[in-house]
Amino acid sequence: MEIGITGVDPTTFPEMAAWHWHIALYLFLGGLVAGIMIISAVLRLRRSPGFDRGLRIAEISAVPLACVGLFALFLDLGNGWNAWRFFATFQVTSAMSWGSWILLFAMIVLVVRATIHTQDLTFRSGWWTRPLDLLSRIGRILGRKSRAIDYSAIVLGIALGAYTGILLSTIPARPLWDSMALAPLFLVSGLTVGGAFICLFLEREPHLRLVPLIVTLCAVELALIAGFMATLLMGPAPLQAAGELLLGGRYALGLWGGVVVLGLLVPVSIEIAEVARRKVPPLLSSIAPYLKMSGGLVLRFVIVYAGVASVL
Amino acid sequence: MARYGMAIDVARCQGCQACLVACKTENEVPLGKFRLRMREEVVGTFPDLYGEFRMEQCFHCENAPCVPVCPTGATFQTDDGLVLTNPSRCTGCKACVVACPYDMRHVNPGGWVDKCTFCDHRIAEGRQPACVVTCPTGSRFFGDLDNPSSDVSIAIASATQVDVLKPHTGAKPKLFYLESKLINQADHDDPATVLSEFAGGK
Amino acid sequence: MNDMQRSSVNSGMNRRLFLKMSAFGVAAVALVGAVGQKAVQGLSRLGIPVPWYRQGPIETTFNYCNICPWRCGIIVKTVNGKVRKIEGNPLDPKSRGMLCARGQAGPSFIYDPDRLSQPMIRVGERGAGEFRSATWEEALDVVADGMKAIAETHGQESIAFFGHTSGDFWFTDHLPQAWGSPNASKASSSLCTSPREEASILTMGTNVGGHEPVDWDYIECLVLIGTHIGEDARNTMMQDLANAKARGAKVIVVDPRFSTAATKADWWLAIKPGTDTALLLAWMNVLIAEDRYDVDFVAEWTEGFEELATHVAEFTPEWAAKITDLPADSIRNTGRMLGTAFPASAIVPGRHTTWYGNDTQRMRAVYIINSLLGAYGRKGGIYLGKKPLLDPYPQRPYTVQGSSGGCAAEPGEEESAELPLGPTGKVRADGVREKFLRGPTAMQELIEPMITGDPYPIKGLFLYGLNLLHTIPNPERTKEALRNLDLVVGIDVLPQDHIAWCDVVLPEASYLERYDELWACKHKTPYIAMREPAVEPFADTKPAWWMARELGLRLGLDPYFKWETIEEYLDRRLLTAGSSLEKMRAAGGIVVQKGAPYLEDHSSSPFMTPSGKIQLYSAPLADAGFDAIPVYEPIAEPPPGSFRLLYGRHPVHTFAMTQNTPALSELYPENEVWISASAAPSLGVRDGDRVVVRNEAGVTEGPVRAKVTQRIRQDAVYMVHGFGHKTKELTRAVGRGASDAALMSDYALDPICGGAGMRVTFVTIEREA
Question: Which residue, among B17, B55, B197, would best test binding to A if mutated, counting the most A CBs under 10 Å from its CB?
């Protein structure tokens, strides 16, 4: 068949496809922040010792990380000046509308938690620490409700992490996203990368204590990827075609090489080896969290780009 | 209350693209952006060939997948079944662009998402859409699908073959193709078969 | 202000105080205005665009479209002095309220930022494109002085006038005939329709006219031979074909390429290029041998049937099959199909018929078949078109009788008549009667006299709306001719390729910015359409009538420009049709008259041959040494490895005129070379590759994109005409695609009508290095 097209058609102009790196990055950072929120809140509620420093840094970093994600989202908007419109309405059928409000509340909790934990920071005093003193004072007041805030962080973290997947899976026109596994996959992947992020700032001992949890999360994530692929490949023709994009198509290397092998299997192996007291070169053990985080990033890119390219 | 729809008779259409330009001037669609597009398909081997032109635009689906995903309510469906976008409410988040199974939406350089409106401003004045009026081959029929004496209802009723694109989406498009021998007959949308194409802009 | 001043004085206000206050007031207003403007800009940025139809009152003007020569009646919608939308005029017999892509793109065409904006005088070498701007006074003086100088040395005949597009009356008819040059020519004759017009005059005694008189409403079987309806997007033809097909009419398309029309055909005959006459002779054979012709019509209205029957007896479908590369059965079956439906059955005359240099004879064969089918003046056949009643403006007879032709022209001088003489006793320089028998002035034959001075030198050239270097084959020869001239004047809307070669450039107001000569269309229902300005002329541009008049007054041609304004001229002409501009506006821009389409509408023979009968056998041709009945003459075939270069149209472009129009350029920005999918592999060419096209003289065009397709025979390649613009002034069109005209280093002169056969070029294809 010979086809000629006049006008713009994403079949012939894949670059016309609507969502690009902004959304992928935003989904990644959203998941990361959600993971940090959940894991840190759980650890704080369990009052496990040795995590304080790592959690504090992660909780404070979560605010700028979320801001970067929001900025990427803002850049993606065709009409950024109308961004306030997200909060002038609530559209019950629109995942993005839900997401906007979840993000708003999550941001509040993030800022509150960051404020609480600035009080633990110690600075050389000077004129420039005055505002931080004020912040610490506010944090001390808020800290009295820290348990309630931690519980709400867990709830909002789960909502946020799942939302990053639900946003995609509620768009039936893109068969690659048409999977119930996407929301739990993105949530668990968020926990994996959130955990990896926290581990960056942990001593060796508490890090190793977390490994069983991390390995479990990675195993669940692998299972969810398998489940996700299964729902595609066993679905109707468009879903199968979408699955093939990931199985052997343009995006296969990213998913299997970038996410599964480099992002999950390799770092988990490193961590298991460490727990098993094998000799692990320090370089390897230090890059494991980074590998997991880049795996999470690649996962979002693969799913966004392959999804936009999949046709019902 | 009407249920507006359109029918395009591909046996009549000669691919002259008058509709594309009429739409462009009527609705001030910027260069490089299109509310309408044309697909030309030829099957067979020389000299046993068959060819068709297919004009595509927003199908104003009854179950429009673009409407529920809009986070601000900018995209909505009127009581007359038109699917419209209100530029002043649109943030340009492109959820609707991604949600359209037919890729009929684009982002206007002004930032809002744009697409065919069936010329709602002309309908309001009792006129037909610009693409319908200008069509030299009379391929386009427009009107109220609920009114059996409307142009579109008569055209559909008297056609021997009626198709919508991708019926499996469940979107229930309200633009019908008449007398096509290719639609839903082959794997049209396989990009590997695309041989030549032109688009606007640079 | 005055009122305010008075009242302030009356109230005893101190004058100085008042002035201070008003100064403050002005400043405040300016400030508020500036802030307001920002606010408005800000608001529109926030996404509340006001559509054009709500920006102000919509003004409506009437016009006939100029983006192709078909001249559809249009209604132009203007808001705040800007043309926003064009729609077909529902009363117009051509547009019937509809319009093609090009007509719709009128606003984009006239607001092309590359338009010529002011008169210019050349300062560099010809072709270098270096100009200085000039006033109209100066530019027109230079032109008039140049014309007078040429007239003094060589005679008025030594200025040629070439034109095209629907405004060409002023510079290819009126001014040259008043001035006294018989060397005025329109591209639409010898480079397009001459064969079909001259064949028609030789056969029926009447021309075809600007609107092919096919009785589409009732036709039951029709043939398109190389007629590309749908690609040659003439609005009415597309309407008619679609409606005829929907009614169930059978369509036979003869074309080496699977054209748009072929996609609509019941039968597509993928004929070998150049063999159409063999097919036509075989169809005659089938019609006569199987008694499928209109015996009564032939007996009553034709002459020479016996000779014809004898002549075609041997041209069986089997004979033609070998020549045409078509199955004999297909030829026989399509011939029978034609012969079943008569008289509602005909071969459509087509327009661009200058193909192989033997085209008048092929067109005669077409008309002979139509006569056998009894189609002429019959319902569903070929109706008898009629010119509307409309007199010319009363004035002194022209200095020289015109023969510029044009697709809408009436028959020129009769075969026996003497050629009109110019003021210094010279006939036209195109070699008519010697190089070819008859027909309007052959544009391409006037290039040679510019170079050789034979039979006499042509020293001046006017180019009105004619894309010189894309229209006449062999642009290099044309450039050589241009270098020899004393005066080259270009009148155009856009800086087309040839503008760089002009001494004086006169920028024209576009068709939506001017009044113009009336369009009087020979038609089933004869009608007159008007053109009036919708908006003021762009920049310092002027209408052609104004330029012609200003020149005429400078040349002492006052008797031909007695009218002061164009409205006066138009009203005077319309008076003879019982109308006026005012009445036409009130009536919707069109005057429609009653026609006489069928034989029964005529009391005497409508065929203007001496005997009043259709000449199946042409004695005048026999007398002049040509075949009295068409025969098939083989033409040269492409050498191995070469392809015949075919060309055609794209529905969103007209000739080489619209490639720079933004709204059309974006739909089809560059042409492609169609190469047969079975020939491409041996060339190593894949679809989408960039290829260079080379002709036998070594001229190359491209690189241009290859379209490897099933849709063309393997002995030919095809490209859309009008691309490959070379001038940087056309910012969108420059360098895009390839020019077919540049690849035609030669053409085949039709010895009967003077047409330039342009499908005789052989090319090779190479992948871009």
Answer: B197
